[in-house]
Amino acid sequence: MAQQESWSDQYRRRKDAERRFGKSVFKLPLAKRASDLLVNTVRDGWSILEVGAGDRQMESLLRNSQSEIRYWSMDPDPSGEHDFRTLEEITDCYDCVFAFEVVEHLTLEEAGQWLRELFRITKPGGTLLLSTPNTFYPPAYLRDVTHKTPWCYDELAGFVAGAGFRPESISRIYNDAAHRYLARRFLLGWVFRLAGIDFAKQIVLTASKSN
User: What are the tens digits of pLDDT across the range 168-189?
Assistant: First the structure.
């Protein structure tokens, strides 16, 4: 496909996401933790692959919530013990694939191929979860020099759709003491909207693969 056609398609998918999820980031629902969304999505007996698994902390969290899950991890870091080092070596498919704080470390070209690989290893009817820094909270992205691409929520949804998934939901992540949470969400919410700067540090996108 020609480059111009490719970006034309991406723009269309981004506008589709904007219509579905809202033109403002403040229209997106709030959740406390990305892990909460993951736990609420996973079902007993599912096969799960974590991409960019790091220290595999999510494994124990998932096993505590669903005792019969089957968990695998992928991470290129040689210091960790993982089932896979690359996506290309994975031949099985999984009910749920998730990657928290990974996609922002990729270039646009790398991200497109990476998402297509995630699509390949997700079972028909399966679920994808991605988290990334919220571009409307700039420090979450700017504080890490290894970040390569800032992903606005509608752009991420567009790229995910371009890989073959159907974006289902996008949430903002914010977890703080109750008094600060209430103040920022309700008392000072208009200030954040006026400034165009969010207090939520991350977004989480959930998508499905058609049967």
Answer: 999 999 999 998 988 988 888 8
